[in-house]
Each structure stands twice: as structure tokens, then as C-alpha cells.
């Protein structure tokens, strides 16, 4: 099988013209070049561009060794982080693991649980209750080291771990992934002697999945990070500015979505027909939403899991306001095989499917949905992934990252900052009476 991701925009034609797309080829090329020559906005955050081709064998080996050490010590690992500090790992781990991973016995790898991505009190209490009596470790990921959600969860989990195994052992079960030289987590990790990994200065959180931020948890889950990086490196080459527009799927995707946006298609829905891809969509939402939603413009990024959501959001997609387009991640081949059995009584009337693969039914649902949605006025982009393995997922991650950078430049925004995220933080700190926010506290309390 040809293990290469394919992009099909044929079902957007009719809503936009091939000529409109071709007219944007030069601009897309210019934007791609601007990423590579560092002449565009946010050019101090372009370190992700060459991560796949520049990561060394020694770096990968070090990550694999740390993963092995944690696997030997811990039956559970809590991954603490929010946004780009956890979505990439979770996206890859979920897409490549058994759907019932946490229920598997005789495990070779720890159960991975997540914390620091919400402030739910019940969530944390229930997590602590689950961890009681289990040998657990913590990977704490925060580039800034000051994000409230992970800092709070880490404080609680670290205290629990130290109470259970003592400070001396706890430090061998905690890994910190943070800034190279600054920040609260850096200082704490240095003082306490935790194993540290660096998030490079020039890589933003949402582009960090191919740094230790993603690679360590992914390796810990038993996934081949060398294959993941190899897939990404392949896509790095295939989306380079020297690759002609007609073959450059990152440029084509970036142009197509911007042309649709110009035609009033302001919402992009990422759809999948495989439940393992749910967190790929969560990762993608942050990547595109945080990169493009600024200066009062940008496509709104939504996601659906089909066929489940065809029985809920399907109605809206088919007949609601015509301001949407769909991008479907289609997995060509499942990893397993299951055929529909014959049933003597055939009360459900499904014998016409007997002997057929379940995936055949899924594919017909996918095709039927595509045609129905296109008929209903929803342009459709298809991203075909040959199969769910580390090499293909590596390609997918880099494809979306590269296209996002190009797309942001086409839109005219800085795709590497996120100034809007500060507004809620400022209000929350003011409401919490955080030292340094006295004036804001006074002002906000007058509004209540
Ligand atoms: O890694 P950090 O600094 O804790 O940030 C986590 C997330 O929070 C944001 O900075 C937004 O607040 C995201 O861009 C980032 O992925």
C-alpha cells in the first residue's frame, strides 16, 4: 500500500472554482517561502518547521530511555498539561492505541491519565481516589510553567505522590517538560532534581507535538516515535516551498479553505468516521483556532465524530445555515478485520450485509454522507490517511501544521501568537485576588 496521505478537494468545486484556487497559487507559495525564510509575522516561532528532519538519534534515544524507566516504575502516569501541552500526545496516543486501552490487563505500558486540562474539583478528587494504592508517576508539561490549570493539578498530584512514596522516590517519578531556562516549573524542577526536557523557545505549544512534549508521552504509551517522526519528515519534504503548488497538499488545503472562507463558508467542521480520531480533531481545533482566530477574522473550527454525530449534528449540517464546509479525515484501511455474521431469523433485516466487512458499511456511510452534504450545500475536502499507524499519523500532524502556517499568512494574521487567551486569565486572576492584580480586582468587582 502506498503509505501517503492524499488530499481531495474535488467536492469543493462548484462552490469555488479551480481557477480561483490556481489564482492563489503564487500567494500560497510566497506564504510557504515566508515560513522558510523567516520573513513573515511571528518569525521567532518557526522552530517546528524543521523538527522532523533535525531531531537526532541521541534525542530520540534519551526520550525512549526515560519512557522505559517510567514504564518499569509506574502502572499509571498522569500527564499534566493543557492545550498544546497535552492535546498532541493525546491525539496520537488515542489514535494508535486499543480503543479500550485502560481496561487491558497484563500491560507492558502504564495507563495514561490526564489532568491539568480543567479545574474540576470532582475530577481531581476522583483521580486521587483512583491513584490510591497504585504506583504512579507524573509528566508535567507547561511551556510557561505558570498556566493555572496544570500548576494547580501538579501541586496536588505532587503532594500526593510525595506523601505516598516519599520525596526521594517521587523525584524519580516526575518529569518536567518546560522552558530551557525560565519559569516556575523550570525553577522547581531544577531545585528538586526532576528529569527535565526542554520546549524550544521557538516552538509554540500548539506546534510542539514533535518535541518531547508529545514524544515522551507517546513513547511511554508504547508507540514507535521514530516512525512518527519519519512520517512527519516525509511530509516536511512533500510540503516544502520547492514542491510545485499542484503537488503541495499543504498549500492546496490552505488555499482551498481560504477561498471557501471568502465565499462565506466561515465554519470548518473536521469530521472523522473512526472514534480513535476524536482527539486529533481536538488538537486540530486548537492549532487552527488559536492560530487564525484574531483581528476579528478567521474560520471557526468545529469537529464531529461520525457516524455518531450524524444522529445529532447531522440535521444542522444537512439543512442549517449554509456557512459551513467539511474536512473529512478518511482512514482507507482499518487495522483489523470483522465481517457481518448471518442471522437465521434476520429480524433486523441485515442479512443483505452478511459476509461484508464492517468497514465496507462505514465507507458507504462516509460516501453517502459526503454526497448528501455536498447536495445540501456543504463543500467537502477529503484528507485520506492510508491507515492508523505512527508513520501516517506523523504525516498528518505535519501536514496540518504546515498548512496552518501557510493559511494564517494567506489570511494576513500572525499564526504563532494567541493574545486573546489572556483576557479570561486576567479576569480570573482579578477575581481570585491574585497579588499584582489589585487594580483589576477592584474594577472587575464593581461589575458584579
Ligand atoms: O504550556 P503552557 O505554557 O502551560 O500553555 C498551555 C496552553 O496555554 C496557552 O498558552 C493559552 O493560554 C496555549 O497556547 C498553550 O498551548
Automatic annotation (TrEMBL):
Pfam families: PGI (PF00342). Pathway: Carbohydrate degradation; glycolysis; D-glyceraldehyde 3-phosphate and glycerone phosphate from D-glucose: step 2/4; Carbohydrate biosynthesis; gluconeogenesis. It catalyses: alpha-D-glucose 6-phosphate = beta-D-fructose 6-phosphate. Its main location: cytoplasm. GO terms for molecular function: carbohydrate derivative binding; glucose-6-phosphate isomerase activity; monosaccharide binding. The keyword Transmembrane does not apply. The active site is at 290 (proton donor), 425. InterPro entries: G6P_Isomerase (IPR001672), Phosphoglucose_isomerase_CS (IPR018189), SIS_dom_sf (IPR046348), SIS_PGI_1 (IPR035476), SIS_PGI_2 (IPR035482). Keywords: Cytoplasm, Gluconeogenesis, Glycolysis, Isomerase. Its EC number is 5.3.1.9. The keyword Acyltransferase does not apply. It is an enzyme of class 5 (isomerase). It is found in: Cytoplasm. One of its GO terms (cellular component) is cytosol. One of its GO terms (biological process) is glycolytic process. Belongs to the GPI family. This is Glucose-6-phosphate isomerase. It comes from Dysgonomonas gadei ATCC BAA-286. The gene is pgi.
